[in-house]
Amino acid sequence: MLLEIACFNIESCLIAQKAGAHRIEFCNDYESGGLAPSFQEIAKARQLIKIPLHVIIRFKKDEVKLMEEAIWFCKKFKIDGVVFGVLKENSIDILSCVKLVELARPMKCTFHRYIDKCLNMNESIEHLIDIGFDNVLTSGGKETALEGMETIAKLQQSYGDKINIIPGGGIRPDNIKQIKQITRCTSFHSAALDTISKNADENTIKELLHVINS
User: What does the pLDDT look like over 6-32, one tens digit per residue?
Assistant: First the structure.
């Protein structure tokens, strides 16, 4: 079982690492659903974080040129993985994604929750497999993973041996057990936010870990 924590600042990265998270997805701007951190922040996170560190490569506009520059930077600084996605009319932009995955190697590549905007999720997952993505983060086309867990379960059953399906979206200690049981996934994604500080919460992360490992 693997628990990935979405961290929206350096402080949260350090909290997640201390709490025992298996991997960090480093982002910026929680309200926007996660945008790319600055190059300075990425370099600092790499210096401080010893567990696997993935960085989201997403901007307010899906400009492939900006994504290429950010991926190059991550590669230079030995980041473990990058998280990105490009769509074209509610389906996978295959040419752009092929280009970005090839550029990113040997880093791991995760397709983010843009998958939930796709009109045909099964076809889209098949495209991601053909392109060579390692992981796909999804809430099953719904607002939260809890609402979309039946769809996630079908995706896991059909494609889980070819790409790592990661449920994400509103995952908390009080629902992760049900999501785990229904989906049969082995990786989970949560921000584990403290509602007051808006940082990752150490106790919440420990609770999540306890549940998925029990």
Answer: 999 999 999 999 999 999 999 999 888
Output b/e per residue, 150-185; b: 16+ Cβ within 10 A.
ebbbebbeebbeebbbbbbbbbbbeebeebbebbeb
Phi, psi of 118 (to 5 degrees): -75, 140
Whose tokens are 């997640």? That residue is 16
Ordered domains of the chain (ranges, CATH): 2-212 (3.20.20.380)
Residues of the chain with pLDDT > 90, as a percent, come to 93
In the chain, the amino acid numbered 140 is G
